[in-house]
Amino acid sequence: MGISARASRAKAAVDVVTAFFAKVQAAADDPDALDFTFGNPHEFALPGLVEAIRNQVEPRTVDWYAYRTSEADAQQTIAAGLRTELGLPFAPEDIAMTQGAFGAISLALALLTDAGDEVVIPVPGWFCYEPMLYAADLVPVRAPLAADTFDLDLGAIAAAITPRTRVVIVNSPANPTGRVYPASTWRELADLLERASAEHGRRIWLLSDEPYRRIRFDGVEFASPAAVYPWTLIDYSYGKVLLAPGQRLGYLALSPLIPAEERDVLREALFPLGLAIGWGFPDAVMQYAAPALESVSIDMVELARKRDRLFGALAGAGVELTRPEGTFYLWGRAPGGDGQAFCEALAERGVHFMPGTLFDRPEHFRVSLTATMQTIDRALPELLDVVAGFRAGER
């Protein structure tokens, strides 16, 4: 008796995250705790979000709260937005509404993979890729990013591909590094995947994980691999740009460059698979609100101010950081090279960062910029004191 083998593998892969989450939850009881861990809101919800939901709560028909699949208004609005944003001819039928990016990734895996298939994932990368793959009875294969720049390492991706590879996952803007990859990178990756697909006699798909697509700094442009590699699916979540991860709204989009016959097969599978994975569609009210939410966003000017405040202070103290081009995170190498020890020392002062052990990079740490500027200002004296101590070899 016991849980399944795939459940055991998934649990083991995410144990470090759940253990850390429990610590954060315990620290939340401390009113003086300064939390920079997960990308949760620290201020009241955006007025535009509240208004969009409020406008859809009152029933207008008797079936207002009935089962909903992918609502046509939401699909049409999103397809139009993608046509403008990415310059590709998306149609409403290319869009499947999901429970955030989690749901979109689950749908993509159900759509494209069979048990035992290999899926290449970036490292460091989002800590939920691996457990999700194990839970789907798939095999994660890690492809390290470039050690210093955290660019996609095409050589590492090529080395990770085998005859069993079915999907390569890419993430831009990237969590945790904040990197935004240029169109030239996608062109090189497209060539690589085309060659590998031909070599192994099996199409390798690309899943472009884009939940931070609209969170970019300094005028950095965004390019999607869907524009250069036809066999691309895009997952997206509104939870990031709205800073409301508890309101589950996202979608999976099929690249309009997928050959028509193959795209028709995929389109026809979206609804039955959305049902099969556990009714993976967003709640009715969130779907009704989707058209209004397309134009709602966190304050990017304020987010840039917080990035610059923390980045400037830490870099000025000698901490090695990757300047984020997107997302709402800072990624750095801990002074002394031990991210766990660094984060534990900060926690003793009531400042909570995320250690790089959650990303398979124990020498690093991640900081969420969703904390308020007041929290940043309160944390900086303690933070800089701990940094100075580590740099002086006191620990």
From TrEMBL:
Keyword NAD assigned: no
Taxonomic superkingdom: Bacteria
EC number: 2.6.1.-
GO molecular function terms noted in the UniProt entry: transaminase activity
Known cofactor(s): pyridoxal 5'-phosphate
Similarity section: Belongs to the class-I pyridoxal-phosphate-dependent aminotransferase family.
PANTHER family, sorted: ASPARTATE AMINOTRANSFERASE YHDR-RELATED (PTHR42691:SF1)
Protein name: Aminotransferase
Protein's organism: Microbacterium insulae
